[in-house]
Design brief:
- The complex is a heterodimer of chains A (815) and B (137).
- Chain A has 20 helices and 24 strands.
- Chain A has 815 residues and is of the alpha+beta class.
- Classes of the chains: A alpha+beta (815), B alpha+beta (137).
Amino acid sequence: MEYTGEHLLPGRLGHFFVLLSFVASLVATISYFKSANANIREEAASWKRLGRIGFILDGFSVFAVFSILLYIVATHKFEYLYAWNHSSRSLNFNYLLSCIWEGQEGSFLLWTIWHVVLGGILLKTAGQWEAPVMTVISFIQMCLATMIMGIYVFGSKIGSNPFLLVREFYQDAPIFSRPDYLSLGQMQDGQGLNQLLQNYWMVIHPPVLFLGFASVIVPFAYAIAGLWKKNYNGWTKAAVPWALFSTCILGTGILMGAAWAYESLTFGGYWAWDPVENASLVPWLVMVAGMHTLVIYNATGHSLRPTYLFFILSFVFILYSTYLTRSGDLQDTSVHAFTSLGMNWQLRIFVLAISVPSLVLFFKRFKAIPSIAKEESTYSREFWMFIGSLVFFLSALFIIIATSLPVINKIFHTSLAMGEDVEFAYNRIEVFVAILIGILTAVSQYLKYRNTTKQYFLKKIAVPTGISVVICLLIGLFGNINYDKYGPGFLAAIHVALFAAIYTVVSNAFYVWAGLNNKFKAAGASIAHVGFGLMLAGILISSSKKEVLSYNTTGINLRFDPQSKEKSQENITLIKSIRTDMGKYHATYLNSDSTDRNGTMMYFRINFRKKDSAEEFTLFPNLIRNTKGQEGFSNNPDSKHYWNKDIFSYISYADNMDKESDTIQFKSYPVDINDTIYYSNGYIILNKVVANPFNERYQFTAADTALMADITLVTKEGREYKALPVFYVKDNQPRYILDTVFAQNVAIGFSRVLNNKKIELQVKESNKLVPFVALKVYEFPFINVLWLGSFVMITGFVMSILRRVKLNRAMKSAV
Amino acid sequence: MKKTHIIILVCIALSIAVLISFMGDLSTYETIASAKQKSGKNVTIIAKLDNSKPIKYDPRTNPNFTSFHILDTLGNKAQVVYHYEKPYDIEKAERIVLKGKMRGDVFEITSKDGILIKCPSKYKDDPKAAHNNLSQN
C-alpha cells in the first residue's frame, strides 16, 4: 500500500548511518588491531591510518544518527515511533533532548557519542598507545552500534532501530489499513514525554551521567592495552587524568540524578538505594579505588595489580549495570528501570563477551605484572590509601550483590527479596564504610609516601584531630542528633561517622592551608577530599535529622485505623481556607490553580506560618497530569530553601484529582420569601429575591434577565452564613450559578421560578464539596552542606585534572 | 605472615560476616497462602489488585490509612493495610510488589517503601494503551 504524507527519507538516512557506524567501527577495530600487532613500522602506520579513518567515519555516522533523530522529534514527524512515543506538540522546546534519552535507543546513542568525543581526544594525545587503546574502544563502539541496528539475522532481532515507524511497530492496528492514516486524530500528536522527566535536571543529568559512563572506558582500554602489549607500566602516567576525569564526571552525573530525585520525586530524599541508582554508584566506587591505587603505583611502585583489576572491573560493572537497568530484570525491585526491549540475550552476550576475555587476560598476565615484594610500611601513605581503596571496592561488591538479587534468583531459582526496610539494609553497612573512609581520608595526607617518622606524623595530625574532636563534641552536645529509630547502636555509628566526616574536612582543609606551603595548585586532591567530607557530613545530618513536619497535631482522633496511634501519620489533611495546626507551623491551603495552558499542571498554594515567630512563607507543590494517555497525576514537590535547611512538601492527595463524581443528588424545594428548609446542621431561610443584582459578585444590568436568591443559613450553634445563588436567562436558555457554603458542606441552586411567587431551590449536602489536600511536609536540615560539598569536590577534581595534564605535557616535552 | 595477607583475611572475614547478616535480613517472595503460614514474618508478595473490592482511602478522615484487596496468581485473596497515602497509580497497577507482614488475614505494610507499583506507564510506555489508541477509528 502507498501511504500518503509520510516522510521516509530521514528514517532511511538515519538507519543507513546506524549501519555505517557499525561497519566503520568494525573496520576501525580490525585496522587498529592489525596496527597494534604489526612488527614493521610502516605496516603499523598504514593500518593505523585506516583505523583512524574508520573511527572518524564512525564518529560522523553517530552524530548524523543523533541529528536525524533530533530532527524527527523536533519537527513532530509522528509517523516515526520515536517521535510518537516520546514527544508531543505541546512539549516545551527545552525538553526535546529529554525525549531522545527517554528511550533506550537514544541513551545508547548518547553513550556512543561520548565515546566518539573521548576517542577523538585520544587520537590526539595517546601517541604510541593509540592503536591498542583505540582497538578496545572501537570494538565497544561496534557492540553498541548493534544495539540500535534493528535488523534480523536468522530470525533473531539484533538491536532496536530508533527509526522504526509506528505502523511497523503496531503492524496489526486497524488504522494502518488506510493509506491516509496520518491524517487521523491519534497520529496528529505524540504520546508525550513522561511528566516526571519534564524537569531541567533531566535535560542535563543524562548527558553528564553518560559522559561518566563513557569515560570509564579509557582507563579500562589503557589497562587492557597494557596487558595485551605486555607493556605493564607505560600507560600509568597518561591514565591519571583520565581516571580523575572519569571519577569526577561519573560522580557529578550521579549527584545530578540525586538532585533531580530530590526536586521532583517524592520518596523524600535524594537517594533511595534504588537498583538503578546503585547501578551507577558501583562502577564509580570501583573507579575511585582504581584511581587511588594508580596514584600509589605512580608514586611508589606498589599496587599495580589491584589497579588493573579495579579498572577492568569498573568497566565490567558499567556493562553489568547496563544489563541490569535495561533487561527488565529489575522490574520488581526498582521504580525506574527500563522495561525489556526483548534483547536480553544480546545484552548478556555483550556483557560476557567483554568481561570474560578481559578477566581471563588479567589472570593470565597476573604474575607478569610488576609488583614489589617488600611490604609497605605501616607509616606510609600508600599502605593506608590501599586499605581505603579496598574498603571502597568491598563496599561496591556488597552493593552490587544486594542489587543483583533478582539476577541471583533467576540463575539459582531462589526467591530472595530485600526486607521491608530496603534503605536500612544498605545504610547500616554503609555507615561503617563512611567511618573507615572518613578516617582514612583524614589521616593519610599526613603520611608521606614510603615512610614517615612517628613524631612527624603525630605532630602534624594533632591539631586537626583536636579541632575535629571539639567540633564533634559540640555537635554531640548541642546538635540534637538523636535518631533512635534503629536503636542506640546505629545512633552511635552515625555519631562516629559524623566525626569521621568532620575529621576529613578539617584535616584536609588544614593540609591545604598549612601543609602545602601555598602550593595551591597542588591542592586539588585535598580540596576534593574536603568536598567529599562535607558531602558525607551533609548526608549524615540531613538524613538522620530529617523530620516529618506534617504530623497531625490537631488532637482530633482519626477514625478507621485503630493502629494509627503507633504508626506514623505523615500526612495531614488541610481543608481549603481553614488554618490547621501542624507542629511548629500553622498550615493553610489557600487555593489551587492550573496555570499551564493545557491544564497539565495543578498548583496548590499552601501558606505556612511559624507559631513562635512572624515567619511566613508559601509553597506551591503541584500535580502534573500523566502523559502517554494515562489518567491521573504525578506529584511534583516544592521546597522552601533556607541556608541551613529545606522545608520540602508535596501533595499526597487532592480532592480534584479524583474524577469519581459526587453521587449525592440535589433535592428541590418550592419556597416563598421567609420560608425555611431544614438541613442536617440547621436551617436555610430565603430572605428575598433580587432582580438583576449588581454587587461585588455579580454584575448584571437592566438588559439582563437575572434573579438572585438572598439566603441565610443558620446553624444549630446560631452561626449565620450567606448564600447567593442566581438564576438567569441567556440566549433563551435558563442558567444557574450555584453557591456553596463550604463550612457547612451545603450547595444551593436557584433552579426556576414557580407560580404564586414561589421559587424552586436545589439543596445538596455532601462532604465532597469541600476542597482539601492531604499534604506531606519534611524538613531536611543542612542539606546545603551536601550540595556545597559536591561543588567543592568537583572543583578539587578539576584542579587535579588540570595539574596532571600539565605535568604529563611537561614530561612529554622533556622526553 | 605478611601484613597484607592478614588484612586480606580480615577483609574476607568481615565480608562474610556482612553477607551472612545481610542474608539473615532478606525476606522471600511468597504467595498469599504461604505468607499466611509465615504469619508475622517479613515477606514479599507479588500480586494484582482485586478489583472486585473497593480501595479504601478517605483522606478527609484519615490521610494515613489505605486499604485494598489483592489477588495472587493462585487465586488467593487478602486484604492489605498500608499506613500511608494511597499510592498514585494503584488503580492501574498491573502488578504490585508488597513488603510486609501477614497478621491473620490482613497483610500489613508499615514501611512507606513497602509498596512498589508496576504500572505499564511508569517510565515506559504502555504498549497496550498505545495499541488501543491506534485501534480506534
